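mind reviewing this fold:
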Amino acid sequence: MRALLERDPRLIIPAGTTEQHGPHLPLGTDTILVERLADDLSAEFGVLRAPTVEYGVNAATRTPYPGNAAIRRKTLHRFLNDLVGDWEEGGVRQFIILTAHGHDPHQEALSTLRTNTASIRTVDIFTVPLNVEEATLPFHGGALDTSLLLYVDRALVDLAAAEDYVPPTRRQRARRADRTIPVEGPGSVGWPTHASVELGERLYHLIYERIATRIFGRPPHSLHAVSPP
C-alpha cells in the first residue's frame, strides 16, 4: 500500500445510496453505478480505490419504501471526515469521490469535508455534460438510470415492472437535485420504458471519458475497461 501511494497518492471513493428507484431497479442502483466506474477508473489509471460507502442522505418520501436506508447529512459528513483523516495520515494526497446522487444534503456532506493538505474532488456523475436529449428529462429511476444499469448488469433490471411516471409540474426540464418522490408515483420519476442497453453503453462511455479526461488528466487509452462484464 505504501509503495502504491508513493507512486500515485490518489484515492477513489465510491459513495452510493440505498434507496428506491422504482419497482424495476435495485435499491443499490446509485452504488452499483459508482462502484463500476471506480473499478474501471482504478484499473485504467492504476489509482487505489477505497471500499464503497453504501449509504447516503436520501430524499424524504411520504411513502415508506421497504429496504430504504438513509443516514443524516452530518452523519455522512462526520463518517467520511474520519476516514479521510486517517487516509490522509497514511499518505493520500488527493481524494476523488464518485457519487450518482444529486440530493443537496448528500452533496453538501461530500463537498464540505476537511483535510490538512490533501485535496478533495467530488464528482456527481450525472452533472457530467452528456450532450444527449435524454439528459434534459426529469429522472430518478428513469431512462438514464435504467439504461446505465442495463449496460452494467442486465440481470439486475426488471423492465417488465418499469412504470413511466412524470408529475405535471416536472414535464419541463428538471434539475437532478430535485429529488422529491411524489407519493402517488411508483418510487421513480421519468420514462424507464425508454431505456436500452445501447443508450446505457453510450452514456457510460461519455461519463467515463469525461471523468477520465477532466479528473485524471487524459482520455482512456482504450475501451476495454468499460466493456460490459
Residues 197-215 form the longest helix (19 residues).
